[in-house]
Write a structure and sequence with these properties.
Order of helices and strands of chain B: HHHHHHHHHHHHHHH
Strand content of chain B: under 5%
Strand content of chain A: under 5%
Number of strands of chain B: 0
Helix content of chain B: 55-70%
Largest sheet of chain B: none
Largest interface: A-B, 107 and 110 residues
Distance between the termini of chain A: 63 Å
Number of helices of chain A: 14
Oligomer: heterodimer
Structural class of chain B: mainly alpha
Number of helices of chain B: 15
Distance between the termini of chain B: 31 Å
Helix content of chain A: over 70%
Number of strands of chain A: 0
Order of helices and strands of chain A: HHHHHHHHHHHHHH
Radius of gyration of chain A: 27 Å
Shape of chain A: globular
Shape of chain B: globular
């Protein structure tokens, strides 16, 4: 009897501390953590949900009560935003500009990074520092001269002009990120390719580029977000040209003071937000990975 | 010696092909024969990106410095070199100095608030789990991470417009919530229209937009710390708070420095948020920033020389800020390798 009790005690002595620790202090910490994180998540989600909900309301409904659900789920706000406010065509312009700029900057950036990382030649350091300078100075410094460069080239207020400028300003980031990536690829592979008779072009496009896919994907995601969200460049050099989404949204909100159509404004914001959000939720795993890749240097 | 210099390619016909096998292999060829493959390769791979980069990025930067010393008013080709006159004008201009002051306010508070908040959330997500056994994150932590990242995927202008509506005095979400909690004094309070709250309300919007991004960045950094380090700290008796302060923060110090610089550069710009929330600079210019003043001076008043000088001031402010961050990090021992 006593021996059984003693053994019980011993086992309880052995196991209980960890159990009680999990049930008290850990629970408190866990609860506090969950509460804090839940509060922040609500702060993030509520404005988005409210915007989404308001996009189905009429202006008078919005002003009557900010919380009430729309009396009926009407889509005419979206129709007005899409066609009358021109969000549809802005959206299309954004897709064209960002899509083209993204493809061009990825190809050119990869090429430039590859040459800088893999070949030593006089001036390579200088080019590297030139790229660094482009990353350091604020875009604002360039705006006034850029406006006149675009004007003189006849590219002011045109989509191709916008694409070229996007490519230029996304280039330094792309080159920097891919530079370290190409540096880390083993040199033997390039040598093997050239021994097998591949020229410089083939080595790059058929051997190196496919190997750099993970790096390319990460940079492409960040470039996409950066260019899609770009506001200053289109406003400065494309003020009178075919508008891109961020620019069109600002213009639409700017007129709002005169013609109050808040429902359509909320619809326009929703149209801007939702596609990227959906793409993010689908690809978030890759994106988390690329954030860690981008910062592990 | 880099391997590149000894690389030979099959296409290098000519000297390589005729070198007798008995030739000493130590002879390093400084110059490789230029084949069409090589010339076209370098021309396109280096020349094309560099041409675009120089024309659209580097040359405007360089020209801005020159324009800043002229009285150029745009569309006429006439411009006079006036030295530092523009800079004198800027620094005696009350409105610009007010904008500069607002930028300094932003640069002091934005990075620190954003980083502390995202660091706390990242710590909770990664080491908020059980204190026994394997070091674990919180349950469902990926949900919090994904949700917190949402704002980063939203264009800044959309964030600004959305929050402009949330802050709306009569139909906005914020006042609606406050009044439903019984705080009737907020019934039609204009958060962005009152001098005392416009800046704070604006800062909150920017913090809202970036906390999730830096949280993900810090989570990645913390996950890069080997679990043994945390276990060792725990065996030594360090509690959660102690672990966070003495282990986590020193080990992700580089990430924090990067975040600080990015956030500071953003605070010195802040154009989009200000343009969306208070296009006119806010009550009493309380949210006016240098970038807005620059944009107005250039594209509304067509004083391009003056605007370029403002751009230079902005650039110098950015460089000074980055320098200070590097220096502080260095002086407080950031260059020491704490991981060993």
């Amino acid at each position: 009897m006593t021996s059984k009790l003693a053994s019980e005690q011993r086992t309880s002595l052995h196991f209980n501390p960890s159990k009680s620790a999990t049930t008290t202090s850990d629970k408190v910490v866990g609860a506090v953590s969950h509460t804090a994180l839940t509060i922040w998540s609500l702060i993030v989600i509520l404005p988005l949900l409210w915007t989404f909900m308001s996009s189905f309301k009429t202006s008078s409904e919005i002003f009557a009560s900010p919380f009430a659900l729309p009396s009926q789920w009407r889509f005419d706000n979206y129709l007005r935003a899409w066609s009358e406010a021109g969000i549809g065509s802005y959206f299309l312009n954004s897709v064209i500009v960002v899509g083209s700029a993204l493809v061009i900057v990825m190809v050119l950036g990869a090429m430039c990074a590859y040459v800088l990382a893999r070949y030593t030649f006089p001036g390579s350091r200088a080019i590297y520092y030139l790229m660094l300078a482009g990353l350091t100075f604020p875009i604002f410094l360039a705006m006034v001269p850029l406006f006149f460069i675009m004007k003189n080239l006849g590219l002011l207020n045109t989509l191709p002009g916008l694409i070229l400028v996007y490519v230029g300003f996304a280039l330094p980031f792309t080159v920097f990120f891919l530079f370290s990536f190409f540096k880390s690829l083993p040199f033997e592979i390039g040598e093997a390719a050239s021994l097998d008779g591949a020229g410089e072009w083939r080595t790059f496009f058929q051997v190196m580029l496919p190997m750099a896919k993970p790096g390319l994907a990460s940079v492409a995601i960040f470039n996409f977000l950066g260019l899609w969200n770009q506001f200053l460049i289109p406003v400065a050099i494309n003020a009178a040209g075919p508008r891109v989404l961020s620019q069109g949204l600002a213009a639409f909100a700017g007129q709002m003071g005169y013609a109050v159509d808040f429902g359509a404004l909320f619809a326009a914001v929703t149209v801007t937000v939702v596609p990227v959000l959906i793409v993010y939720v689908i690809f978030q795993r890759q994106l988390q990975g690329s954030v860690s890749q981008g910062t592990s240097k | 010696m880099t391997p590149v210099k000894t690389r030979t390619s099959r296409n290098d016909v000519g000297p390589t092909a005729v070198v007798p096998e008995s030739a000493p292999p130590v002879v390093r060829r400084r110059r490789k024969p230029l084949t069409w493959d090589k010339v076209s390769f370098f021309g396109v791979f280096l020349g094309l990106p560099l041409a675009i980069y120089i024309v659209f990025v580097i040359s405007p930067f360089a020209q801005a410095f020159y324009y800043s010393m002229t009285d150029w008013s745009g569309f006429s080709s006439k411009m006079n070199f006036i030295g530092l006159e523009n800079y004198r004008k800027i620094f005696t201009d009350d409105i610009f100095m007010k904008a500069l002051g607002n930028n300094i306010l932003l640069v002091i508070f934005l990075p620190i608030i954003t980083i502390i908040l995202s660091l706390v959330l990242a710590t909770l997500v990664t080491v908020g789990g059980s204190s026994k056994g394997q070091i674990k994150g919180l349950r469902n932590s990926s949900f919090y991470r994904v949700v917190s990242f949402f704002p980063y995927t939203i264009p800044a202008i959309a964030i600004g417009i959305m929050w402009g509506q949330i802050y709306d005095p009569s139909g906005g979400l914020l006042n609606g919530m406050l009044t439903s909690l019984g705080l009737d004094q907020f019934k039609s309070y204009a958060w962005l229209g009152d001098k005392s709250t416009a800046m704070i309300a604006t800062m909150f919007v920017i913090v809202w937009g970036f906390v999730g991004f830096y949280m993900v960045l810090f989570v990645a950094g913390i996950k890069g710390i080997p679990a043994e380090t945390f276990e060792a700290a725990r065996i030594d008796g360090a509690g959660r708070f102690r672990t966070a302060v003495s282990i986590t923060i020193p080990l992700i110090r580089d990430n924090i420095q990067t975040a600080y610089i990015y956030m500071g550069i953003l605070a010195l710009d802040a154009f989009v948020y200000m343009a969306a929330l208070n296009p006119g600079g806010g009550p009493d210019n309380s949210t006016l920033v240098m970038a807005q003043q620059l944009f107005f001076t250039a594209f509304t008043k067509s004083q391009f020389g003056l605007a370029s000088a403002m751009g230079v001031v902005l650039a110098i402010a950015t460089l000074i800020f980055s320098g200070i961050v590097f220096l502080v990090n260095r002086l407080t021992g950031g260059d020491k390798d704490v991981s060993n």
